[in-house]
Design brief:
Helix content: over 70%
Length: 233
């Protein structure tokens, strides 16, 4: 119970009561100042964990479909799912724009948009040749393996845990997965130009996209290589 003397106007506050009052006053402010950072980390942890699981699902489905039905039928079994999993990467542009991550927004936007063009403007509307070729399956394998490693690495770093072998995988599998992915993407763009339903200007757009891929992707590869060596990868 609270004694009547503690609420009396004439009673003098003791040192202990003043200290207690001060600490009670400061505690909510301290808590509120750290909670946005905590919520941000929790959100990024959930996002990266969910992304790792979704891309792992894509990877497993492609690996199962190839021996079961052949690479020609991979698109029918996982195409729509992979397309919308990749579309979720739009959030990464939002993260960069809001400063939730350190990635430059321009670089992030280019990387994400190039893949979105592949799945939404190349493969999905013009599937006649590229989805029945091995390049669609190899593209998904390269993408999904890369993203499982990348997102799993981020999950561990956000948790404050040692990424361990994920660090090595992230900076070394790149030298295999990146060329496979880029070659597959370029092959899919070229195969789309053979689709009879593609208009003249769309064909021109595809060739223009291929012209961007060679210098743009090669330059990114060099920058990544130097960054990887700088981190001991």
């Amino acid at each position: 119970m609270i004694s009547s003397t503690s609420t009396s106007p004439t009673s003098k506050p003791t040192l202990s009561s003043a200290t207690s009052t001060t600490s009670k006053t400061l505690t909510p402010a301290s808590s509120s100042s750290t909670s946005p950072r905590v919520r941000q980390q929790q959100y990024l942890l959930i996002y990266n964990l969910a992304s790792a699981i979704l891309w792992f699902s894509v990877l497993v489905r492609v690996l199962v479909l190839i021996p079961l039905v052949g690479y020609q039928n991979v698109y029918g079994g996982v195409g729509d799912f992979a397309r919308w999993v990749q579309t979720g990467a739009l959030l990464e542009i939002v993260h960069a724009a809001l400063g939730l991550v350190r990635s430059p927004i321009s670089t992030t936007a280019i990387q994400v948009s190039s893949r979105l063009i592949l799945v939404h403007a190349i493969v999905h509307p013009f599937p006649a040749h590229n989805t029945t070729s091995p390049f669609y399956a190899s593209m998904l394998l390269a993408w999904s393996a890369t993203e499982v490693i990348r997102y799993s690495y981020f999950v561990q770093t956000i948790r404050g845990a040692d990424p361990g072998v994920l660090t090595w995988l992230r900076y070394n599998t790149f030298y295999v997965l990146y060329p496979v992915g880029i070659a597959s993407e370029m092959a899919n763009i070229w195969l789309a130009t053979r689709d009879s339903g593609m208009g003249e200007w769309e064909v021109v757009g595809c060739w223009g996209l291929l012209g961007f891929y060679v210098p743009g992707r090669f330059g990114f590869c060099l920058r990544y290589s130097f960054r990887g060596h700088g981190r001991g990868g």
